[in-house]
């Protein structure tokens, strides 16, 4: 991917929007480009790397993996999202494993170059901290859901989150979202695939969820407290 394409994507990322075009051009030249295939590990939990990563094309997931290869998905990053900021800032090993969920193109910026960028542009630190706080809140919500919600409501909470970000309202009043496999839902909810399958049947039986033509359709304005 030419640097001009990297520059174009960086301009759309809030983290770098405070930079002038001239300085942004210098930053884009500091990125190395890494192409990864679907299923490829970008880095493992406890790896010593400290670079900043930005998704230029495709999609990746950050997850925790136990000794039985069960996954708990912490976050999903798409085009324009950055990840790896914790190790970037404190220099400590990675806190999660990151895996490509599609064939992807990743921009990699060395820690030393990013720290220099921070010194010269303090506003980036504020934007970075805001993004980190938002991710911490998302993690808190996920942990709260795992602790207090049953599997059906955990799944529904995920669907509502997706609907809020990328859902499409249909003529019959439902919200159309992309289909997610039972395995992915198990990873996102911390439940077994068997529990997910049962929960999905409950949602379909109650008319909250429909599945057709490769998409899910859910009812709008569902109150999780009354579900």
UniProtKB/TrEMBL annotation:
<dbReference type="InterPro" id="IPR018488">
    <property type="entry name" value="cNMP-bd_CS"/>
</dbReference>
<keyword id="KW-0804">Transcription</keyword>
<keyword id="KW-0805">Transcription regulation</keyword>
<dbReference type="InterPro" id="IPR018490">
    <property type="entry name" value="cNMP-bd_dom_sf"/>
</dbReference>
<dbReference type="GO" id="GO:0003700">
    <property type="term" value="F:DNA-binding transcription factor activity"/>
</dbReference>
<dbReference type="InterPro" id="IPR012318">
    <property type="entry name" value="HTH_CRP"/>
</dbReference>
<dbReference type="GO" id="GO:0003677">
    <property type="term" value="F:DNA binding"/>
</dbReference>
<dbReference type="Pfam" id="PF13545">
    <property type="entry name" value="HTH_Crp_2"/>
</dbReference>
<dbReference type="GO" id="GO:0005829">
    <property type="term" value="C:cytosol"/>
</dbReference>
<dbReference type="InterPro" id="IPR014710">
    <property type="entry name" value="RmlC-like_jellyroll"/>
</dbReference>
<dbReference type="Pfam" id="PF00027">
    <property type="entry name" value="cNMP_binding"/>
</dbReference>
<dbReference type="InterPro" id="IPR050397">
    <property type="entry name" value="Env_Response_Regulators"/>
</dbReference>
<keyword id="KW-0238">DNA-binding</keyword>
<feature type="domain" description="HTH crp-type">
    <location>
        <begin position="149"/>
        <end position="223"/>
    </location>
</feature>
<dbReference type="InterPro" id="IPR036388">
    <property type="entry name" value="WH-like_DNA-bd_sf"/>
</dbReference>
<dbReference type="InterPro" id="IPR036390">
    <property type="entry name" value="WH_DNA-bd_sf"/>
</dbReference>
<feature type="domain" description="Cyclic nucleotide-binding">
    <location>
        <begin position="15"/>
        <end position="135"/>
    </location>
</feature>
<protein>
    <submittedName>
        <fullName>Crp/Fnr family transcriptional regulator</fullName>
    </submittedName>
</protein>
<dbReference type="InterPro" id="IPR000595">
    <property type="entry name" value="cNMP-bd_dom"/>
</dbReference>
């Amino acid at each position: 991917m030419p640097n001009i394409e990297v520059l174009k994507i960086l301009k759309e990322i809030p983290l770098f929007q405070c930079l002038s075009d001239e300085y942004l051009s210098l930053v884009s030249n500091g990125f190395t480009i890494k192409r990864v295939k679907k299923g490829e590990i970008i880095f493992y939990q406890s790896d010593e790397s400290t670079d900043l990563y930005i998704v230029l094309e495709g999609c990746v997931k950050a997850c925790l993996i136990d000794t039985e290869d069960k996954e708990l998905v912490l976050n999903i990053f798409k085009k324009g999202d950055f990840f790896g900021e914790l190790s970037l800032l404190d220099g400590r090993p990675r806190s999660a494993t990151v895996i490509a969920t599609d064939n992807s193109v990743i921009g990699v910026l060395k820690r030393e170059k990013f720290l220099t960028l921070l010194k010269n542009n303090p506003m980036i630190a504020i934007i970075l901290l805001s993004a980190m706080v938002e991710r911490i809140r998302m993690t808190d919500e996920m942990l709260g859901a795992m602790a207090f919600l049953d599997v059906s409501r955990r799944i529904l909470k995920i669907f509502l989150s997706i609907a809020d970000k990328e859902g499409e309202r249909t003529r019959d009043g439902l919200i159309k979202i992309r289909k997610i496999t039972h395995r992915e839902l198990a990873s996102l909810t911390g439940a077994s695939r068997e529990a997910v399958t049962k929960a999905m049947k409950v949602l379909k039986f109650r008319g909250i969820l429909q599945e057709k033509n490769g998409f899910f359709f859910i009812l709008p304005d569902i109150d999780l407290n009354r579900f």
